[in-house]
Amino acid sequence: MSLFRPRSDARAPLDGVDAVLADLDGVVYRGADAIPFAVESLNLAKRERAVGYITNNASRSDASVARHLAELGLDVVADDVVTSPQAAMHLLAERVPAGALVLVVGGEGIVTELERRGYRVTRSADDAPAAVVQGFAPDVGWTQLAEAAFALNAGGFADEHGIPWIATNMDWTIPVARGIAPGNGTLVSAVHTAVGRFPVVAGKPETPIFDEARRRFAADRPLVVGDRLDTDILGANRAGMASAVVLTGIDRAKQLLAAKAAERPDFILGDLRGLHDPYPVVERSRDAVRVGRAKVRLDGDAVVVVSDGADELDLLRAACAVIWDSGHPIHALRVPERLYS
User: Fold this and answer.
1) Mind listing the GO molecular function terms for this protein (predicted)?
2) Domains in the chain, start-ordered, CATH in brackets?
3) Is the N end or the C end of the chain the one with fewer CB atoms within 10 Å?
């Protein structure tokens, strides 16, 4: 996959796409409020293809998420929402039969999915659960983390031979209305420190949640839209899906310029209106890259802005192309500070 299309093929990111798989936090909403242009752009996209919402947040059920999205004005039902607990259920079914007792660390999102599939739920290691499923909820504290550790260490096990342990996701942070807060990865890390092993992970950037979405929407040519390179974009690349990063959430210009090869998107969008617009072509000459009227070149180890052009986003796209094409890590290059803004 490539960041830019050749000059003769200036298509919109949605051209040829049969399903849009949109992240939520930082893409559709920030806190309780919709991000500008997100609702209109996604409703328009749904006129010609499936639109799904793929989220690592395990604290809410699919129905709860769908109600929130509908209140924002989106055309959505519960089946349009793919959650990390749903992906976790496929991993659990491979390891533990239906009807088994499962210790839950987390909230409604996990409990709902377990009960749908016939599992029994406990919060106590004393009940000798057959597995542990761990996800984020705002009220998770030491007591729940300790119960997980007790269950995973039952019988003296402190290695990979204990009962199955499945984490919905490993996001280190989560965006909330007041700012950036610790995510499920920090909570999983606390249990890992106590038990000496790692869980199997269902959510982004691992592939189970993308596999669940592909099955759900029977998608052959999906486009993943996210705001985080290390979860949304890395996961899409691992799953063999096209991807677009939108600069309304966590990652911005600085992270894009420094992106590792596995975390580079096919498209860079300012907001979701860009899904419908022809994506700019790239012109590569011997000494420079041009996108629109922006032009950037590499002079030794210096990234040089030849022309800012008329669009800051085109300048960022051109700078990313130059840096990514160079094969050098960003710390080995001199990059103008204004490109980071």
Assistant:
1) phosphatase activity
2) 7-56+205-275 (3.40.50.1000), 85-201 (3.40.50.1000), 282-335 (no CATH)
3) C
